[in-house]
């Protein structure tokens, strides 16, 4: 087992550090910005169904559901296709409306999650075309899907999903760009910019991983916290959910992820001088609004930990702790901004003496309802 962990103390840490490679592997042979090439071999026969889709329904569970939320933004922004992101367990039991012209995406690391599998069986029986985004080759979901794309992140052993998440975002981004390009809903310029930026993501994730020592120090300070709030907007809203999920899964600290603007409708009541609030506040179209949300937390004496874009001059004047990540396109930022949150939950869990690779009550793959 020590050999399998490749010198890391836990599988989770190894998998966090494998992300530059996993994201690179996911793009290999599929994307070349130089040649303006974006080819997904697993999406051929039904590619036109996707391009002409009237609606996309994404079904998934857990971390994969968070990838689906980011993908909703990709597909709507780039392809102008309306998207619904569904918990597979809810979708399957509510007699969902599936029309001709709808396509369904199932996102699953293991490809074996019972609820996701049952949801796509149902959709398939109603005539929907199913695209699978799985990590495990030959898994049940990949077999039952009409077409799809593997994430090629390599085996993920830690129960808390890390590299599968960033690889899912990579694949979903490539799919959305490919569809948008064919549909003509993206300008050539933006399309090309995004291909170049995608290719740069592994190097940016590598840089974000260098924050490890700084994040360890922040973890020391908050290891005994009883609660955490994570806030973000736009593309960083699902990142807030994912950051909170990672922390509760492995450290057993209660954590809530929320869209930052929605805080005033509830979570703001929880904020006092004891409450750590993690803001994912990178430079994007909602930056100014997030800055106001940070001020609202400060006014209530909350302790702000902010993930910001390198060189940000404003937020460091407000936040107790600032974590600077490399700049990228806002659509791709989740792949970078999630890295410090994975590390934060990892270090806090280790400091609390938790079993990070096999947290209590959780399973890597949930093959029962
Ligand atoms: C379990 C795992 C999570 C995972 C979820 C969905 O709860 O502990 O890490 O996100 O299942 O799994 P899937 O294999 O379908 O992505």
Automatic annotation (TrEMBL):
Q: Which domain of life is it from?
A: Bacteria
* UniProt keyword terms in alphabetical order: Aminotransferase, Cytoplasm, Glutamine amidotransferase, Repeat, Transferase
Compartments annotated for it: namely: Cytoplasm
| EC annotation from Swiss-Prot or TrEMBL | 2.6.1.16
Q: Which residues form the SIS domain?
A: 46-185, 218-359
Biological process terms from the Gene Ontology for this record are: amino sugar biosynthetic process; carbohydrate metabolic process; fructose 6-phosphate metabolic process; protein N-linked glycosylation; UDP-N-acetylglucosamine metabolic process
Name the chemical reaction catalysed here: D-fructose 6-phosphate + L-glutamine = D-glucosamine 6-phosphate + L-glutamate
Listed under GO cellular component are: cytosol
**GO MF term (any one):** carbohydrate derivative binding
Q: Where is the active site?
A: 364
Provide the function of this protein.
Catalyzes the first step in hexosamine metabolism, converting fructose-6P into glucosamine-6P using glutamine as a nitrogen source.
Assembly and binders: Homodimer.
What name has this protein been given in UniProt?
A: Glutamine--fructose-6-phosphate aminotransferase [isomerizing]
Gene assigned in the entry: glmS
């Amino acid at each position: 087992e020590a050999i399998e962990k490749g010198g890391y103390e836990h599988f989770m840490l190894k998998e966090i550090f494998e992300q530059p490679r996993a994201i690179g592997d996911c793009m290999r042979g599929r994307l070349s910005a130089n040649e303006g090439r974006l080819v997904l071999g697993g999406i051929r026969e039904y590619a036109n169904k996707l391009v002409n889709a009237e609606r996309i329904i994404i079904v998934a569970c857990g971390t994969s559901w968070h990838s689906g939320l980011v993908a909703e933004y990709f597909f709507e922004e780039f392809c102008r296709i309306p998207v619904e992101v569904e918990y597979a367990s809810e979708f399957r039991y509510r007699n969902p409306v599936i029309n001709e012209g709808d396509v369904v995406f199932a996102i699953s690391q293991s490809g074996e999650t019972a609820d996701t599998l049952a949801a796509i069986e149902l959709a398939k029986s109603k005539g929907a075309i199913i695209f699978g985004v799985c990590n495990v080759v030959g898994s049940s979901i990949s077999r039952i899907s009409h077409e799809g794309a593997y994430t090629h992140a390599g085996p993920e052993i830690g129960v808390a999903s890390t590299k599968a998440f960033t690889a899912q975002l990579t694949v979903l981004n490539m799919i959305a760009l490919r569809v948008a390009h064919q549909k003509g809903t993206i300008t050539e310029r933006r399309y090309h910019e995004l291909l170049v930026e995608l290719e740069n993501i592994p190097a940016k994730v590598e840089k974000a991983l260098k924050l490890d020592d700084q994040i360890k120090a922040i973890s020391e300070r908050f290891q005994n916290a009883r609660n955490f709030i994570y806030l973000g907007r736009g593309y960083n809203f699902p990142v807030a959910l994912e950051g909170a999920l990672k922390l509760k899964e492995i450290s057993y600290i209660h954590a809530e992820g929320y869209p930052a603007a929605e805080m005033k409708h509830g979570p703001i009541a929880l904020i006092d001088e004891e409450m750590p609030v993690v803001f994912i506040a990178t430079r994007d179209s909602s930056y100014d609004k997030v800055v106001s949300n940070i001020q609202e937390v400060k006014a209530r004496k909350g302790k702000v930990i902010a993930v910001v874009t390198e060189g940000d001059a404003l937020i460091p004047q407000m936040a107790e702790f600032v974590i600077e990540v490399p700049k990228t396109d806002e659509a791709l930022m989740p792949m970078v901004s999630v890295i410090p949150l994975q590390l934060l939950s990892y270090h806090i869990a280790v400091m609390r003496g938790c079993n990070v690779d096999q947290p209590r009550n959780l399973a890597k793959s949930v093959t029962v309802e």
